[in-house]
Amino acid sequence: MADDSINKGRRRFLTASTAVIGGAGLIITAIPFVETWLPSARAQAAGSPITVDISKIEKGQMVRYGWRKQPIFVINRTPEQLQWLPKQDPRLRDPHSNEPQQPSYCKNGHRSIKPEWMVLIGICTHLGCVPDYKKKVGPEPFDPDWKGGFYCPCHHSRYDMAARVYDGVPAPLNMVVPPYHFVDDTHIQIGVDPKGAA
After folding, report:
1. What pLDDT is recorded for position 155?
2. CATH fold of 49-190, please?
3. What distance separates the 2 farthest-apart alpha carbons in the chain?
């Protein structure tokens, strides 16, 4: 009788121990499987917003950054560059950025939150080449009435200083403005829209 109760107690202990160890083993085995569903740290970093310091970008200067494996152009436009923008409207395909993929804060003549700061994805909308920044105003081989902007050497598409595409070139759309906002007067975060923006 005493032996039966001891055996039953042992049996319960061994059953419970086996269940706990088996459950722990199952969880440990499942962790790597579940982790394969999660994006890698590299993938998470590639899509993460970046914050850039604009305090040292001089007037007229463009600086390149990388975000989501794309070149980001940040330009500190001069008053002269801004003054030419409305005068280019008759030469442009979409001067008011009516394309649906553009954020609401770029649907203005300067296509930016603050007129002097241009932030854009530096990729030509024709076949994905990276255009050159041509800030000098004056005749160019590709445009005798050049007022500054971006020129794609691959297929000769041209954009003004607000990255709006000229009419009659291969590129069909204005260059894309990424989501961005000003963190403060000297920092821009690329990858996140301003609060309340669409």
Report:
1. 93
2. Rieske Iron-sulfur Protein (2.102.10)
3. 109
Phi and psi of 158, rounded to 5°?
-130, 145
Can you give the pTM of this predicted structure? 0.75
Residue 158 to residue 136: CA distance in whole angstroms:
14
pLDDT of amino acid 56: 96
pLDDT of residue 37: 61
Give the integer Cα–Cα distance in Å for 66 and 114.
21
d(CA 105, CA 180): 10
Write out the two tokens for 77.
């436009």
